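Pipeline run #58 for the internal structure catalog. This entry was flagged by the ingest filter as a single-chain record with no existing model, so it goes straight to prediction. Upstream metadata was stripped on purpose; only the residue string is passed forward. Reviewer on rotation: M.T. Logging verbosity set to normal.
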Amino acid sequence: MSIPLRATIDDRREAEAGVPPFEPPPWLRNAHAQTVAGRYLLRGDIRVPASRHEIDLGDGDRLCVLETIPPDWSRGDPAAMLVHGLGSCARAPYMARIAGRLAALGVRVARMNLRGAGDGFGLARGIYHAGRTGDVRLALAWLGSRAPGSPIALAGFSLGGNLALKLAGEAAVDPVPGLDCVLAANPPVDLAASAATITRPQNRLYDWNFTSWLRREVRRLHGRFPDLGRPDLRGVRSVRDFDQRYTAARNGFSCADDYYERSSARAWIARTTLPGLVVHAADDPFIPAESFAGVAFPRPLEFEMTRHGGHLGYLSRRPWHGDHRWLDVRFAAWLADRWGLPADRLDLSAPRRTRRITALPGVHTRHA
């Protein structure tokens, strides 16, 4: 597989910038090993205290957000909104890890459960999908109202990365107040290509897992709201089947292809005026590197493609700032550099990292 030269991590350039190139351990060079290990290994203590809030979406649905406020945060200090991927939620380990890292830097962090996901199940009759940027826009408005004058970063992972990049492109015409930058990890910017890639024999386990989860969640949703009727999922054996039969029909698309074309971030990237960082692994099992071929990344939006890393894996051979989670540090370091935050707080072994991150656990508020 050829990797676009502009997207390839250049060891010398990154070293000069203080960013070590991603290098996996010899036993974790395989893309599937990185993907699986990234999810299940080196999880550590990822409990991040947070207060729970609900946001009214204006159509009868609500979504749930978890917010963590560092004890030394002041009005005007930076804030961030994190958006999870398909089959995930705000409490996923990678979401909690990133939230903890950013909070340690002094960043106010909100973790968004997409419509109906995680703690937001039962609050919405509708479902989230890869192009539903209106919900993210409302969540950012909510965060902006709580942190007036603060620069806000939008960071998305996998499907959440597609949402983040699509919204960044839309913001060039319809600005999002307070939105300062955008970050995306392993975003499926060409949804049709990803849907086709995941059906390959070597990826069938991923497709089966996602499809099984989607089928269960739909049945659970229709059980919670019986007036939705009984879902017809007969013959749905792949993510594409599901999008054809259910996602498209419930969200105003004529078919899966229409959904993929109108929701993919690929066409929006060139319009982006926000600075940011997009990280992808050339060996991602089900989001092909070819999705980025020919994409004109604007100068403020950096694009880095590592040779290894799998899907949201990036478990490195050597620790960086005391952490083997290369992607976590990469995002935190990029934001620390952009906002001029103390670099010593990036180090997991630094004494100040032992400070407790406080919030208001158990608080349950609703906001229009």
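catalog note: The first strand starts at residue 51 and ends at 56.
catalog note: Residues 1-7, 9-16, 351-368 have pLDDT under 50 and may be disordered.
status: ready for reviewer M.T.
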